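Reviewer 2 asked us to include a model.

Predict the structure of this chain.
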Amino acid sequence: MNENSKNEQLEQYRVDDSGKKMTTNQGLKVSEDEFSLKAGERGPTLMEDFHFREKMTHFDHERIPERIVHARGFAAHGVFELYEPMKEYTKAGFLQDPSKKTPVFVRFSTVAGSRGSAETVRDARGFATKFYTEEGNYDLVGNNIPVFFIQDAIKFPDLVHAIKPEPHNEIPQAATAHDTFWDFIANNQESAHMVMWAMSDRAIPRSFRMMEGFGVHTFRFVNGEGKAHFVKFHWKPVLGTHSLVWDEAQKISGKDPDFHRRDLSEAIDNGDFPEYELGVQLIKEEDEFSFDFDVLDPTKLWPEEDVPVKIIGKMTLNRNVDNVFAETEQVAFHPGHVVPGIDFTNDPLLQGRLFSYTDTQLIRLGGPNFHELPINRPVCPFHNNQRDGYGRHTINKGQVSYHKNSLAANTPAPASEEEGGYVHYQEKVEGRKVRTRSESFKDHFSQATMFWNSMSEPEKEHIIQAFSFELGKVKSKSVQQQVVNMFANVNLDLAKGFAEAIGANPPENGESDVSKSSPALSQENTKKKPSTRKVGVIIGSNFNAPEVTSVLNALKEEGVQAEMISDKLGKKKGSDGTELEIDHTFLTADSVLFDAIYVVGGSDGNKKFIKDTAYFINEAFSHYKPIGATHEGKKWLEANEIKDSPGVVHGDDMNEFAESFIAAIAEHRYWDRKVV
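Predicted model (structure tokens):
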């Protein structure tokens, strides 16, 4: 068959959807594609919504075998320990006894890229935790951003299709800087708040260890008396929340595309176990309508100043996986994996996820028995009448596999609530079957403005730069202008700032009148610690060994990881014969892979050595990082004209230098530095 014949054969399958009316795969015309079918405007999604199920099922099965989203992930084992009993709010067993340690498995991930993509791209990050409790597995499946792009799960396939590489050329990989993504944003303006987060420094985290996690949705805590509270979950990193700068993130993608997984793995191997405190925000049911936002809207957060975060426990990740495929790739999370005392709300995005996750695992893991894979098995026994299927591990004995029965004394039998049986919260639900959205969901810009108001000046500048980069890659002038006009509703300075950068018409009106801010949203207010920071030490032969060793010891005492960089691997000998092992050469390392640079130098420094050192110094300086210099290194600061800049530490007294340099490392960035 020649090429023309093949094209003729394929012609009957080519379809141009432009200008056509939407239908189901059965040809039925669709009257509404924005909203799932619900029992009342704020009610739960109905199983009879065949359009939603067809659309979501098709989407869930679009990729084989990697995850459609969150494909690029890395994970670790750990434990969760409770600070105080939560009996007042929930009967969940693992939230009752502070003396118990609950095993956990956590998977971090990017959202948009494939399994082979780089890890420091601009993207939301998954933060999924599986608690292996005595009552069964509980999965808290969240992100490092507390809100989402859309309000109804029926639009999730559309969102991901827009984010993913464009189908005509499969470009770009793991990036949103392209036409279809921004066309979706401009025409689905509920995404405004999430986009502000995605364009902020939160979307380029320094490390999984320095990244917040959020449950995103509103859930319910239910106590032993049946009283419920609305709840949102937070993971607060003990090291604080820190980010890369954009130029640095791009360069790391080339220098070390495994940067985040390497960082997590090495930290655990070094005994620097990542720690996160679990916090909850709680709202009484009677206060459901007491706020200027709908508590069920997944594009809204609960400002911490209005609804404080109660810290209730700590998770410590203390063991790397033994096999990435068997554990990280085969783990199956699901927001519907709950335990007594934790229940759902009518958040329409959450309602759709409760269907989608099981459906996805069926094809990705080969059938209905994915729960029997070792990483997914609960620590408590499980008994039911489900049998057979792909990948069955259990060998069930006996002749009975149904309920009710007399041959096995009616077992396995349901458990009463007193025996630990799960009982759904008895929320009253009523309403007409409708495809619509509650009026309370229609404010798309006020919290996006609040986020902008909450940022420091450097953070605001970074957001403008992010919009300028992303939209600078968009080819459609119309889409560019639509986005400019859309974000004028958030803040005029913001919209004008990136409009000028991309050559669009600056908006003249649309400014928000929202003045509220939330200091908790700015990373300027996060914890700042030197512990586990990585410092590149540039060193040559014949260095002043006693003094340099004293600085290295001071760094070690504060938990700072120092790695030696020179022109050759092997050992460098100091002035008194002390030898230091070189970890990297200038060829195998780069300043973007370190949090700070300490320049010692050495008397054998040749022109190439000096040139390579200058590159490290200047790049670290341009990324606002701390730079320390002693001995010969001080001359190089002067040669590069940065000696007196903020965050540049030098001195002759090694104790004073070490103390000042450690303080500088804790600060992380020096935004008031003049970078050309």
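The mean pLDDT is 93. The domain at 69-347 is CATH 2.40.180.10 (Catalase HpII,  Chain A, domain 1). We have added this to the supplementary material.
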